[in-house]
Amino acid sequence: MKPQNHIKGRGAQEKVHNRFSENQYEMRDDFLNYCQKEGEQIDKYQTTFIETFPKTIVNKVTSPDVGMMYSLNPYQGCEHGCVYCYARNTHEYWGYGAGLDFESKILVKKNAAELLEKKLRSKNWKAYPISLSGNTDCYQPIEKKLKITRQLLQVFLKYKHPVGIITKNALIQRDIDILSELSKDNLISVFLSITSLKEETRRILEPRTASIKKRLETLEKLNEAGIPTSVMMAPIIPSINSHEILPLVEEISKRGAKSVGYTIVRLNGAIGKIFATWLENTLPDRKDKILHQIMECHNGTLNDSKFGRRMSGTGIIAEQIHQLFALARKKYFSNPDRIILNCDLHEQYKDGQMRLF
To answer: Residue 153 and residue 137: Cα distance in Å, rounded?
Structure first.
C-alpha cells in the first residue's frame, strides 16, 4: 500500500529547485486551497505545453559512449514521467526544475519538420543516422495530437535519409505506413524501451508510458511489418527490475526483437534526490537497500560520470548484471542482427527528388 502523499500518475514526487536559477519562487497555494475547500477537484500539476521557436533542430552528440552522433528532439520535457530519466537535468537549462516541471511543462517545437528539411537540403550536410529523440520521447502523449514526429518521418522519407527511433510508447504503431517505406531502403531502425514484464513495476516507475502488453504488441507488429526493431532494457535498477533479465530477454526474443541492450541506472545531478523521494513515497521499506546497491555500482556514489563506465557500472553487483545479460544474450540472441543504416541514397535526393543527372 502506497503512502497517502504519493502523487498518482507522476514519477517525480516534488518540485525541485533549478540549480541554475538565482531565485526560487514557490508556488502559491492560497487560491488552490480555497477552491479545494469549495469542493472543486484541483490538479495543480496539470500538464502545460509551451511552444518554442528554435533556429536549429539537429544536435551533434559529443558523448563518446552514447552510440549516436546526431539527435533530434521535437519535445523538451516528457510527460511519461519516468522517475529515473537522465534527461530530467536538461530541463534546468530551460529555466525549469528537473522534478515535476520536467513532466508537466513540455516545450514543443512545432517548426521541427521545417528545420529538418532545411538541414537535409544543406550542401554541407553529409548523411549520417539521426536519432529521434536521444533526450525525451518523440512519441510522448501530446504527439498523438500534434503529429510532429510523423511530419519529421515524412521529411526523412522524402530525402531518403537514415533515422533511428528510441521510444517506449505504442503510438509508434500509427506511423507503420511511413516506417515501412523507410525500411524498404534500409533507412530506419527502432529501439523499444522495455524495462519490466510486470505492470505494477511499470506503473510506478514509468507512470504515463504505454503498458507492457502494448509495448510487446508493438514489438511484434513492427517486426511483422519488416521494420527492424530491437529492445533496450534501460535502465536496470538493482532490486527493482534486475531479477527480470532472463525472462524479459526470453520474451522479446519470441516476439521478433533483432537484438537487446541494457544500461545500469545512474542518478546524476538532481535525479538522485528525486529518485530517493520517489522511493520514500512508493517503496519505503526497500529504499535503503536499493540506494545502497545503486551506490555499489558506482564506486560508492549514486552516479559515476566517467565515459565508458557510467552506464555499465563497476563492482560486484554490476558484474553480476553483466554476466546475467551475457548469459541471456547467448541463450536467446546467439546470432543478433546488426543493423547498419543506408547513408548512400540521400545525396541523390537532396533536392527532394531523384537527381537524374
So the answer is: 15
Locate 114 and state its grid cell: 521545417
Query: Is the CB of residue 138 less than 8 Å from the CB of residue 149?
Result: yes
Whole-prediction pTM value? 0.87
Alpha-carbon torsion (35, 38, 43, 45), positive or negative:
positive
Exposure on the CB side of residue 346, measured as CA atoms within 13 A: 24
DSSP conformational letter for 339: P
Distance CA 110, CA 148 (A): 7
Cis peptide before 196 (omega within 30 of 0): no
H or E stretch covering 58:
strand 58-60
Report the distance separating Cα 47 and Cα 140, nearest Å: 12
Confidence at 65, pLDDT banded by 50, 70, 90: confident
Q: Which helix (H) or strand (E) holds 235?
A: strand 229-236
Q: Is 155 buried (19+), middle (13-18) or exposed (0-12) by CB count in 10 A? A: buried
Place of cell 530551460: 94
Angle at 230 between CA 212 and CA 117, to 5 degrees: 105
Q: Which backbone phi and psi does 274 adopt, to 5 degrees? A: -60, -45
Distance CA 86, CA 104 (A): 16
What helix, strand, coil percent values describe the chain, rounded to 5? 40, 10, 50
C-alpha cell at 326: 551475457
The cell numbers describing 265, all together, are: 541506472
Q: Name, in order, each residue with C-beta under 8 angstroms of 114's C-beta and a sequence gap of 6 or more.
A: none
Tens-digit pLDDT profile for residues 295-344? 999 999 999 888 888 889 999 999 999 999 999 999 999 888 888 999 99
Q: In what order do the strands lie in the sheet with 58-60?
A: 58-60, 70-72, 130-132, 163-167, 188-193, 229-236, 260-264
